[in-house]
Amino acid sequence: MFKKVLIANRGEIAIRVMRACRELDVKSVAVYSDADKNSLFAKYADEAYNIGEPAPAKSYLNIDKIIDVAEKCGAEAIHPGYGFLAENARLGDECEKHGIKLIGPKGSVINSMGSKIESKKLMQKAGVPVVPGASKGISSIDEAVSMAESIGYPVIVKASAGGGGIGMRTVYEEDELVRAIESTQSVAASAFGDSTVYIEKYIEEPRHIEFQILADEHGNTIHVADRECSIQRRHQKLIEEAPSPIMTDELRDQMGSAAVKAAASIGYTNAGTVEFIYSDGNFYFLEMNTRIQVEHPITEFVTGVDLVKEQIKIASGRELCCNQDEIQVHGHAIECRINAEDPLNDFAPNPGKITGYRSPGGTGVRVDSGVYMNYSIPPFYDSMISKLIVWGRTRNEAIARMRRALSEYIILGVKTTLPFHKSMMNNPHFIEAKLHTHFVDEHKQDIEENMKQVVLADKQKEARLKSTFLPSKKIAAVSGAVSNYMAHTIAQKEKK
Predict the structure, then answer these.
(1) Which of 57, 119, 446, 477 is the most buried (most CB within 10 A)?
(2) How far is Cα 212 from Cα 259, in angstroms, rounded to an integer?
(3) Helix, strand or coil for residue 320?
(4) Which UniProt key words apply to this protein (predicted)?
(5) Percentage helix, strand, coil, to 5, in the chain?
């Protein structure tokens, strides 16, 4: 086992990895930007090093700085978390060059899955079902028109190097196709440095179902069951649950076997996720994420497998904790991503100072967070405040528990997505599990009307709560008074 691991990330995922390290008796090392000098993760780590300016390119994306810190502090491995460098092949190559273990797959494997076109070719070769469409980048408009006609409208235009839905455009007729290609190429070049785009059949109202993969360096590959991630906005996940409400033992065997085949065919090691879209009884490979996922806690809840500890163990050379037959799903788990965003203003980011904070608790409730009272959420990074995860014996019990946990969650000072999640947990279509990736758009009016009522009720609650959260100056004054009193008391005792 490693003695020291550097976490090349920030926020809640950095703390999550540090917790796993602590349970494994491994020292954790944080790297932080100037904007994160007062962050919780930097204080929680055994060691912490400043790596510069807030801009990601000068801090969390600066591979040379991170490698330099790892060498100087004697870290034997680097855990990239998710986002930032988590799927950067060069980080893997640099780690190998400097004798540092990357807690993840090799750079060559990351590269093979980084291109949507190349990954699709590899999956076709492995016998994994893929969405009908192009097997190479579009080289001309005429070729695009011909391809769209052959597979039939609607089609979707995607960036080959893309992710997170960035630049994707759905096209319903030929007149829209040229504009969609030009727009996607422009966004792709700006966001990913690669303007290559491709076309595939657009599957209407699909469910987004993914399978967690674990693979060690001894040739063992298993799936750790499924997750449903269909509640999204602009292709960004908002709510995830495990297992998928539509999952049967037969379907899990089929999709899980395809996911294992996909990972094994590219020599995958460590934790990863194979994502599928599902519609009308058919499933198709979407992409593979070569890292730990944001939503991994729901899998941990229903299977009892600590995925991050498994990542560290696998990277240190150990075999998997269990075989496929030992993976069993118990109960139901739901995760709500709590972001500093205004859900009534198209989810616009809302960074700022948290003036009141109280997280929920009780049976079956977990909060993965990197914030605290009076913490200022910086504007430079992802807007996530925390992940609220609950477990219940059934899906209905999990929904009821999430409602209760959301009602307990208090975050003052910034707008958050709490009203959205409260609305969703009372939405009859969500409760009936009639899910697809366009759910939020389809039910937008009902969700927003319900959110307005929630916001009004929350404001009334906030007014009652404000007196319980002392302003920072008063806290300092009270703290100072208590300290002075204790010092005086101790001095009097010493005199006696």
Answers:
(1) 119
(2) 8
(3) coil
(4) ATP-binding, Gluconeogenesis, Ligase, Magnesium, Metal-binding, Nucleotide-binding, Pyruvate
(5) 40, 25, 35
Q: In 10 A of CB 472, how many CB atoms? A: 12
- Which among 106, 165, 163, 76 has a CA at the least distance from the CA of 441? 165
Q: Across the strands, what pairs with 461?
A: none
pLDDT at 55 over 90: yes
Question: Mind listing the pLDDT tens digit for each residue in 142-192?
Answer: 888 998 999 999 999 988 887 667 888 899 999 899 899 989 998 888 888
Element holding 117 (H helix, E strand): helix 116-126
HSE of 350 in the Cβ direction (CA atoms, 13 Å)?
A: 20
Residue 65 parent element (H or E): helix 63-73
The residues that bridge with 358 in the sheet, in sequence order, are 410
Distance, CA of 276 to CA of 283 (rounded, Å): 6
Angle, alpha carbons 413-417-421 (nearest 5°): 135
Looking up tokens 């009308």, which residue turns up? 280
* Helix ranges, 380-471 (H): 395-408, 418-424, 428-431, 439-442, 444-465
Query: What pLDDT, on a 0 to 100 scale, did the predictor assign at position 9?
Result: 98
Q: What is the DSSP letter of 130?
A: B
Cα gap 6→272, rounded to integer Å: 20
Distance, in Å, from the CA atom of 350 to the CA atom of 339, rounded to the nearest integer, reads 9
Tens digit of each residue's pLDDT (9 = 90 or more) over 216-229 = 999 999 999 999 99
> What would the two tokens of residue 277 be?
């879209």
Which two three-digit tokens encode residue 251?
Answer: 């379907």
Residues marked active site are found at: 291
Q: What does pLDDT average to over the chain?
A: 92
Q: Which domains does the chain have, with CATH numbers?
A: 4-103 (3.40.50.20), 132-201 (3.30.1490.20), 207-460 (3.30.470.20)
By residue count, the chain amounts to 496
Instruction: Name the nearest CA neighbour of 476 among 406, 400, 373, 407.
Output: 373
Count CA within 13 A, CB hemisphere, residue 67: 17
CA distances from 104 to 89, 130, 262, 315, 327 (A): 10, 25, 16, 7, 21
| DSSP summary character for residue 133 | B
Count other C-beta atoms under 10 Å from residue 41's C-beta. 24
Distance between terminal CA atoms of the chain? 54
Instruction: Please state the pTM of the whole predicted model.
Output: 0.88
